[in-house]
Amino acid sequence: MTANRRPRPTSDDRELRLWRVGRALAVTFSVAVLVSGGVFYGLVYLLDFQEIDTTAKLDAKTLFDLVKLSFGVVAGAGALVALVVAYRRQRVDEAGAHREATRLHTERFSQAVDKLGSDSPAVRLGGVHALAGLADDAPDNNLRQTCIDVLCAYLQLPFTPDPGFDPAHQEEHHRYLALRKVRHTILRLIGDHYRRPKGTHRSWQGCDLDLTGVIIDGNMNFEGADFSDGEVSFDRATFSDGEVSFRRATFSGGRVSFGHAAFSGGRMSFLGAAFSAGGVLFTGAEFSGGMVSFHGARFLGGEVSLRRAVLSGGEVSFGDAVFAFGHVSFHDAVFANGPVAFMGATFSGALVSFRRATFSGALVAFVNAKFDGGGVEFANAAFSGGLVSFVDATFSDGEVSFVGAAFSDGEVSFRSARFFGDRVSFTGATGPAPSGLLAAVGTASGPVALPSTWLPLNP
């Protein structure tokens, strides 16, 4: 991800485009003459001075006025020169101040990085806070991004696993806990800065965050964070303990990726958007732009929750993800726009619930998805627009429930779907039967309950 980062403009870039004095003066004089001529012509036109007396003689008063006008022109020219020179001096002073700030920043940066390499966990902790402070005070975005990259790189470093509490390894255990505190402090600081409104002091929103391959075994709080720009990567990360919260987070631009991440313990929360399965919670989260990817992620137990999440734009992908055991919840979620892909996903033993979810305009694809156990529930879900596709999906060894679902508009397709589960129920469902459903349940190996209004159409 770092290699593809977009360059950000800095003060030095602007200084390189500063015009030479001669060119700046020429342009300034030209603009002044044009503006003056325009004003003069406008006044002549507005005052209706259509004719000038060519027979008039040059008297002393007119000559004196011309002399004053000449001095005024000279004074104006001098003022323009002074203005241009003052502007350039100001820019040079600003550039010098920026260079000095950059030099001081570089010195402090070197000292902070040296602390991160110390054998003492306490000194490393000081280096973490120093780097976070440097990111806050950085003279430009590139220097801020460099500080964030170093903190992320520290989290990516391998570390010795906990030897466990044993009198024979007590010192190693205490050292592990101390270094674990350093890593958890970095996670806490990252979360604190991403929750601050973009453009305010200490806000890191819009910066790239590369946590590829890290092991997150503690709490990480992104509650209320706004991912409206930049790239955030949790690719191949492992969430093994603690809670990672994205409650009420907003994904309106940029790219956030959990590709091939493993959620094997703890809790991850997107309340307002929430996943926990480990647990991942996206409860109440809003996906209105950009891209959020869980492609190939593994949810190995616990709860994955997107309760009350709003997916109104952008792209959300769970392609080839594995949901093994636990509970996957989209209760009261709203799928209003943009694609949401579960293509090729495997739900093996998990309870997947879309209870009271609303599908009003999005493309939601379960194409080739495999529901190999547990249960799939769309009870009281509302299908009022868009396309929900279960084409070639397989339902086996579990219960599939669309009890009370409302099919009022849009398209829901079960073409070529296969039902091998214990029970398939559409009891109380209203509206027309989804396309391909009746043909699919006709070959189901278990009982299928359909509304009486659909039965005459059942082959």
**Domain module count:** 2
Could you tell me the mean pLDDT? 79
Helix content: 25-40%
Radius of gyration: 33 Å
Give the number of DSSP strands. 32
Shape: flat
How many helices? The count is 7
**Major pleated sheet:** 11 strands, parallel
What gap, in angstroms, lies between the N and C termini? 53 Å
Strand content is 25-35%
SS content category: alpha/beta
Low-pLDDT residue intervals, each spanning 5 or more residues = 9-16, 268-279
Write structural notes for this entry.
Helix 4 packs antiparallel against helix 5 (141-156) and helix 4 (121-137) runs parallel beside helix 6. The two termini are 53 Å apart. Residues 9-16 and 268-279 have low confidence and may be disordered. The protein has 7 helices and 32 strands. Strand 31 (423-425), helix 7 (437-441) and strand 32 form a beta-alpha-beta unit. The chain has 2 domains: 2-153, no CATH class; 209-457. The protein has 459 residues and is of the alpha/beta class. The longest helix has 57 residues, at 60-116. Strands 1, 4, 5, 8, 13, 16, 19, 20, 23, 26 and 29 form an 11-stranded parallel β-sheet that branches. It has helices at 11-16, 21-47, 60-116, 121-137, 141-156, 170-195, 437-441; strands at residues 209-210, 215-216, 220-221, 226-227, 231-233, 238-239, 243-245, 250-257, 262-263, 267-269, 273-276, 279-282, 286-293, 298-299, 303-305, 310-317, 322-324, 327-329, 334-335, 339-341, 346-348, 351-353, 358-365, 370-371, 374-377, 382-389, 394-396, 398-401, 406-413, 418-420, 423-425, 448-449. It is 34% helix and 26% strand.
